Amino acid sequence: MALYKTKGIVMGSRPFDETGKLVTIFTSDYGKIRVIAKGAKRPTSRFGGRVETFTLLELLIAEGRNLDILSQCETIESFQKLRESADGLRIGFYFIRVINAATVEGQKNSDLFRLLAHSLNRLKQGEDLPKLEKFFEVNFLRVEGIFRKGIDPAILIGEHLGVDVRTWKN
């Protein structure tokens, strides 16, 4: 089994088997990937709270036949502060959801990774939410190459993704 190392932001997880989780991670080097975190649901797991949404991790991943396996991870930033506010969570999940909908598995996009990490960091620091939301949307559109001045960014994002993202903000 070959190993690879990368940084990534956890976008979400779901149960995989009795003790494992299937974790979706947006990485700087490999784009969106899904990995199995074996034993992550056990109380004594070495992954435990590390594979929670928003967490920025240093990852060591083993290539598997169908799905890759999380071998080790180290927390760089948990973004705990944004979890303490309903508005912070709402905006954070909005960022994650937009990135998730706009990317396909295995397609590297370093610019989107940096945008997501930077936006979550500004959110953690308590920046004005409407201003930060606009910053994220405009820069997302620029990275995707579809920014048009004078048009509501949420409408352009919605057209790009094929869904009304304005409902994701509530």
Describe the structure.
This protein is 36% helix and 26% strand. It has 5 helices and 5 strands; from the N terminus they run βββββααααα. It has 2 domains: 3-77, Nucleic acid-binding proteins (OB fold (Dihydrolipoamide Acetyltransferase, E2P)), CATH 2.40.50.140; 80-169, no CATH class. The chain has 170 residues and is of the alpha+beta class.
Distance between the termini: 44 Å
- Could you tell me the mean pLDDT? 93
> Helix count?
5
Instruction: Please estimate the helix content.
Output: 25-40%
Biggest sheet record: 5 strands, mixed, barrel
By DSSP, the count of extended strands is 5
How would you name the oligomeric state of the polypeptide chains in this document?
Answer: single chain
| Helix/strand order, N-terminal first | EEEEEHHHHH
Low-confidence stretches: none
Beta-strand portion reads: 25-35%
Taking all Cα atoms into account, the compactness measure Rg is 16 Å
Number of domains: 2
Spatial shape: globular
Offer a quick outline of the entry.
This protein has five helices and five strands.
